[in-house]
Inverse folding.
């Protein structure tokens, strides 16, 4: 990945090799997104409905709220490609009471 923190300060690129993804078989990859929204009735239901509509598999979900009634929801899911993830994130951004959605990277 271009954003790998281990590769930022690499000086010797002689040992690098060209690689490519095998796209012949439809593989899935795990991705995590974080959603920030107002803690209102139906927020989680609306979000999970977007997952269902997109035919994506949920791997894990963690939801919590703070004293200010702001919900933070982390969702891990199986995706085919980055386009599928971006489309889902846009659908979730369009939900009332959602403040922000972004991909969690390590």
């Amino acid at each position: 990945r271009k954003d790998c923190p281990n590769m930022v300060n690499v000086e010797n690129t002689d040992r690098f090799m060209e690689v490519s993804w095998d796209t012949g078989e439809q593989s899935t990859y795990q991705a995590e997104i974080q959603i920030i929204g107002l803690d209102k009735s139906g927020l989680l239901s609306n979000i999970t409905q977007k997952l269902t509509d997109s035919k994506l598999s949920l791997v894990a979900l963690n939801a919590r709220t703070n004293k200010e009634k702001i919900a933070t929801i982390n969702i891990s899911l199986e995706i085919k490609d980055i386009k599928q993830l971006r489309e889902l994130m846009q659908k979730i951004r369009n939900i009332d009471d959602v403040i922000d959605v972004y991909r969690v990277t390590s």
About this structure: The first strand starts at residue 29 and ends at 38.
